[in-house]
Amino acid sequence: MVKTEGITKFLIAEKRNRKFLLEGNLWKVIFYFTSPIIIYWVFQNISDSIDLLILKRNNFPASQITFLSRVHLFKGILIPFGISIATGGVILVGRAYGQNNLEKMRLYLAKTFILSILIGLILSVLCIFVFQKPILESILGISKTHSVNIEQRQYYNLIIISFVCISINTVFLSLERAKGNNKVALLLNLLNACVKIILSLVLFYSFDLHSITSLAWATFISNAIITLFALWFLFFDQNNPFKIILKKLRFDKKFLQKIAKLAIPVCASISVYGLGKLIVSIVIRDFYDGGPEKLTSAQIGANLALAVTINNIFYNLLNSFSDSQNAIISQNLGHNNLNRVFEAFKKIIFCMFIFATLGTLINCFGYKIFLPFFHNTAWEQIPALEQEAFRKLLFFETTSLWLSCGSIILFNFLLAFKKVAPSFYLNFLRSVFRVFFIFLFAPRCLNWGVTGVGLSIFLSNLLCFIITFWIFITFYLKLKRERTFERD
């Protein structure tokens, strides 16, 4: 009875919501989808930045900061496993939503969520119990000092365990957005970020821990809270019309083929890009001592991590539009409304242009505020070489607001039409370009130091954007002309 009432209420709300999403004002629809994602990523970036802020303001050595940065870069290689499942699930659920096929929508939701749990658990077990030693020693460069080694090992383990929660949360929140349930996604996003920020400060300062492990505990607890809610909501909430009943669940070959076709190229694409960033960090660590600026590799790495952290506020904001683009376009394709797809895409490009311009202006004119804030000292008291290194790296990072984010929005447009191969090949090329340039500009070759690190970012993104734009415009013009696309 409760379940029937829940479904009835859901159907009434869905009819109203579906009419708004498929026929309502497009500007309102775009911001309806995008606002929770923006809030999530901005707060997520702030919660990630709090670790760096605390360490810098408490004068932790650059080597410790760069280790943390590499841990998160490594996590960035794993996160796409969750993102790709979420992306595939959003597209499948969005198509079913557009077709008003609730039974198919229910099955896709359940199977996608269970798959995210299995993948997250398998990867975490491998990273902690099977490959921990080579990862820590050969890739992340863990300290040889015993006390620091133990602390860094604990930090790594907690971040990897947190990855399981993040993977589950990413899929859950993405699927809730695909159902049009933005309220739940928004509230949980805010809760996650606020708990992370508060716990980081409380555990680090109030309990006199003053260790990086306390920051990792804050990350784990904040994400675990959301995971527990997701598990309760999907498995035990009697009022949830889409409650998962395990005994009725079957992973049929057709579903696995559909999700794999969408998820594997996306996962490979983002992971390859993340791997490229990690390789760059390792190259800087091992080869960028003694450049023309006479900065240590740890100093260059720490300033790069800081520049990336600041730029990520607008970078993630822009990518929020590409995330919402997937849901909007998939729903309208399910409804066979190509005209609305084209209109939505044009409006999303316009939004990207506005926010990229705003981010560029803030980064270019605000660097003298950002660096002192993290150093907890006046601009004039920061060494001139570090000032210049940070300014250059932030400038080159800012170009990614146009080039990298532009590529991602074009990638996602193609992805909504199930054109998944270009994303993988182009991110692979971008990583190859980036690694090539970082070696080319290293002290043992051209010796361009910090400028070389920045140019490796700019040139790899530029080349990737040019190729992406050519592939996109070819497909876009053909689509406008023929008006046909692959259906479920």
3D structure, described in words:
With 488 residues, the chain is mainly α. It has one domain. The protein has 15 helices and no strands. The longest helix has 38 residues, at 297-334. It is globular. The relative contact order is 0.12. This is Na+ driven multidrug efflux pump. It is found in: Cell membrane. GO terms for molecular function: antiporter activity; xenobiotic transmembrane transporter activity. InterPro entries: MATE_fam, MATE_MepA_subfamily. One of its GO terms (cellular component) is plasma membrane.
Radius of gyration: 23 Å
The quaternary structure here is: single chain
Structural class by SSE content: mainly alpha
Largest sheet: none
* Measured distance between first and last alpha carbons: 33 Å
Compute the number of strand runs: 0
Number of discrete domains: 1
On the 0 to 100 scale, the average pLDDT is 85
Helix content: over 70%
Dominant shape: globular
Order of helices and strands: HHHHHHHHHHHHHHH
Q: Please report which band the strand proportion falls in: under 5%, 5-15%, 15-25%, 25-35%, 35-45% or over 45%.
A: under 5%
The stretches of 5 or more residues where confidence is low (pLDDT under 50) are none
Number of helices: 15
